[in-house]
Amino acid sequence: MGVELSLDPPVCPIQANGGTSKHKIINHCDKMLAYKVKSSNNSNYSVNTIYGLIQIGYTADLIITRKPGKPQADRLIIQFASVEQDCRDPKAPFATGQPVGELSGETIIKLSAAE
């Protein structure tokens, strides 16, 4: 396993008083990927999409929004699993709580809100 999925830019510089940050989720592998975005702080952070599919070599837009609040060490976890090309349900590989597929894993993004 190498880098199957990454985020560009890889950091999320949002102020503690709120704002948005735009990113691309990138599929680097030779399989279509299903993904799920999880947050360690759902009170302050939200994303435009929780589940999605990314074709081989393609990207998906991810917009991270932060509400005003005290800064702390938060993170986003993007879980991923390989799926067949005809897959249309991005939630299916995560039904057990963990990503299930021939290729699976997660990428962690540190959320560092500055005052």
Entry summary:
With 115 residues, the protein is mainly beta.
| Percent of sequence in beta strands | over 45%
Shape: elongated
- Biggest β-sheet: strands ordered side by side in the sheet: 1-2-6-4
The biggest sheet amounts to: 4 strands, antiparallel
User: What percent of the residues sit in helical stretches (DSSP H or I)?
Assistant: under 10%
Low-confidence stretches: none
What is the CATH class?
Mainly Beta
What is the number of independent domains? 1
User: How far is the N terminus from the C terminus?
Assistant: 37 Å
| Total number of helices | 0
Structure notes:
This protein has strands at residues 5-8, 19-27, 32-39, 45-47, 51-54, 59-66, 73-83, 104-112. It has 115 residues and is mostly beta strands. The protein has one domain: Immunoglobulin-like. The termini are far apart.
Keywords:
8 strands, single chain, 115 residues, 4-stranded antiparallel β-sheet, mainly beta, Immunoglobulin-like
